[in-house]
Amino acid sequence: MPHILIVEDEAAIADTLIFALQGEGFTTTWLSLGQAALAHQRQTPADLIILDIGLPDITGFETCKQLRRFSEVPVMFLSARDGEIDRVVGLEIGADDYVVKPFSPREVAARVRAILKRVGPTAVPTVFQVDHERVQIGYRGQPLSLTRHEFRLLNCLLEQPERVFSREQLLDAVGVAADAGYERNIDSHIKSVRSKLRAVAPDAEPIQTHRGLGYSYSPGNS
Ligand code: CA
Q1: If you measure from the C-alpha of residue 7 to the centroid of ligand 1, how many angstroms do you get, rounded to a whole number?
Q2: Does 103 share its domain with 134?
Q3: Which end of the chain is more exposed for a tag (fewer CB within 10 A), N or C?
Q4: Rounded to two decimals, what is the model's pTM?
Q5: d(CA 215, ligand 1 centre) in Å
Q6: How many angstroms is it from 20 CA to the middle of ligand 1?
Q7: How many whole angstroms from 157 Cα to the centroid of ligand 1?
Q8: Distance 52 CA to ligand 1 centre (A)
């Protein structure tokens, strides 16, 4: 289900949006501050953000500007004013759509659907989100708590789906000298990564074992 982050400081407005969006099958998160929304989006990226312009801490415009430094997530602005300037600024700042209060929640839900359809596959939530700068990997929206070795190992597998990597190649990716004793180490790293993945999705098996060959990442089992 596409996940929509609603950033709006008026509870009554947020409530009508949540009701309309959930009625259309979306899942929602509601926050009332711009900074909180930025932090949330870094941790658990939503598929689309509905962003009020008049927020108590930083404006929706500023929030969007900062958001664009690390995310291409579609943004729909909510505005209390129907000003042409707002419209131009909103779209220049990297928003995808714009609605003026008071609005029909059903219309907003329909527009959200249209935007997600338009942006297409890039907006389809990826199962894994790799953040190289923060050395972090998210899985189904949950940040995984990985050691440095586990990060490199999983990242290596994710970069080439379906490719079977030998233990030696994986050791290389992890940055450990490939002497005999270390090869089993890969198995224990894989075991540890798998248990962290299972904690998020017990029924999925994204890392496949190939007997006598090594391991691969299988998106179909994610
Ligand atoms: Ca407001």
Answers
A1: 9
A2: no
A3: N
A4: 0.55
A5: 50
A6: 19
A7: 44
A8: 6
Domain boundary pick from 123, 144, 174: 123
Distance 116 CA to ligand 1 centre (A): 24
Q: Is residue 119 domain-shared with residue 139, that is, in the same domain? A: no
The total number of structural domains that make up the chain = 2
By the CB criterion, residues less than 5 angstroms from ion ligand 1 are 9, 52, 54
Domain co-membership, 105 together with 11 = yes
Range of the domain at 150: 128-221
Cα–Cα–Cα angle for 137, 123, 201, rounded to 5 degrees: 45
User: Which pLDDT tens digits describe the chain residue by residue (222 residues)?
Assistant: 899 999 999 999 999 999 999 988 899 999 999 999 999 999 999 999 999 999 999 999 899 999 988 888 999 999 887 665 566 666 777 888 888 888 898 899 999 998 998 886 544 446 888 888 889 999 987 899 999 999 999 999 998 888 899 988 898 888 876 565 666 688 989 999 999 999 988 888 899 999 989 999 987 777
What's the 17 CA to ligand 1 centre distance in angstroms? 14
25 in Cβ contact with 95 (< 8 Å):
no
Reduced 3-state DSSP string for 110-165: HHHHHHHHHHHHHHCCCCEEEECCCCEEEECCEECCCCHHHHHHHHHHHHCCCCCE
